[in-house]
Amino acid sequence: MSSTEGGSSTQTGAPGAAERLGFKPGMVVQELGWDSDTDDQLRVAIEDAIDADMVDGDYGNVVDAVLLWWRSEDGDLVDGLVDALTDLVGGGAIWLLTPRVGRPNAVEPADIAEAAPVAGLAQTTTAAVSKEWSATRLIAPKHPA
Fold it and tell me: Which residues contact residue 21 at a Cβ distance below 8 angstroms, ignoring those fewer than 6 apart?
């Protein structure tokens, strides 16, 4: 009887989260760090919002945004952020998704605040996007020409 197509019985706010994060139809979104613990409802909501599948690290072209799933056990956050910048178009954003504080493998907000400027990024927004994950928007600061 259960259906994963169009069912909304266990929604965690993910559909609204995709719009709050600024995802729109036609955007090319690269997803990095996917694993079995990622929030599939949020992923589907983002793909619905952009009206396409997200691309992976092998895409090889510019992307409008990067969705980077990151856990404390994933290594050096600065390296992960620098790698996420590889295909990002100028003016694009990295949405760093980390387990919420108090969850296994949570990333401390201070660690994000410290890593972002080292990677050449500025932190702009943080939002809870599901029961398990928080999202932090990181952008490359504008430099005078």
Answer: 46, 95, 127, 129, 135, 137
